[in-house]
């Protein structure tokens, strides 16, 4: 009986993994093209991931999936209605550089988030990958905010996140998600080059 239940659980995990991966492919293509529609895919994917990560025991990722779904709404609003210093045209925000004065505050937020998430995982969960899980999620907070602000350097942040996540998900038995993030890392390199060409009013 236990064997049957384990088989059902494994199949459910794989189906969620595949479904999330398909939506993830759509998402990265839209992000590469700097299409505002990426935010809709960014709502759907984490809703699937909430269940996937919970069943896989990736508790920090589970919490971050909830954050991603909420943050996607913010990202859409900012891309559509937000403005940047020096922006003269109406419509979506332009792609620009990460502002230098934001680097130190961003690093501080990342460090605090990493320590905080790690502490929660160690104290309140049975996670066997608390250090890595907390690292990618803390860095993802910065990456998602940089994406919402349409900073070209967000791609560099995601390269690090994607490489680490690819290894982490392979270790946790989520192969399709692992392959997806491996592909993300490669696409992020090309995305960085494409977005640099799209910049119209860099923020120094």
Mind sketching the topology for me?
Layout: H1 2-32, H2 38-56, H3 59-81, H4 103-124, H5 130-148, H6 154-171, H7 175-198
Helix pairs in contact: 1-2, 1-7, 2-3, 3-5, 4-5, 5-6, 6-7
What does this structure look like?
- The protein has 204 residues and is mainly α.
- 76% of the residues lie in helices and 0% in strands.
What is the average per-residue confidence, as pLDDT, rounded to a whole number? 86
Work out the helix count: 7
Shape: globular
In angstroms, what is the radius of gyration? 18 Å
How many E strands?
0
- How much of the polypeptide forms β-strand, as a percent range? under 5%
Binned, the helix content reads over 70%
Distance from N terminus to C terminus (CA atoms, Å) equals 63 Å
Instruction: Return residue spans where pLDDT drops below 50 for at least 5 consecutive residues.
Output: none
Largest sheet: none
Order of helices and strands: HHHHHHH
Q: In terms of structural class, how would the helical and strand content be classed?
A: mainly alpha
Task: Put the structure in a nutshell.
The protein is mainly alpha-helical and 204 residues long.
Q: Notable features of this structure?
A:
204 residues; mainly alpha; transport; NMN_transpt_PnuC; transmembrane
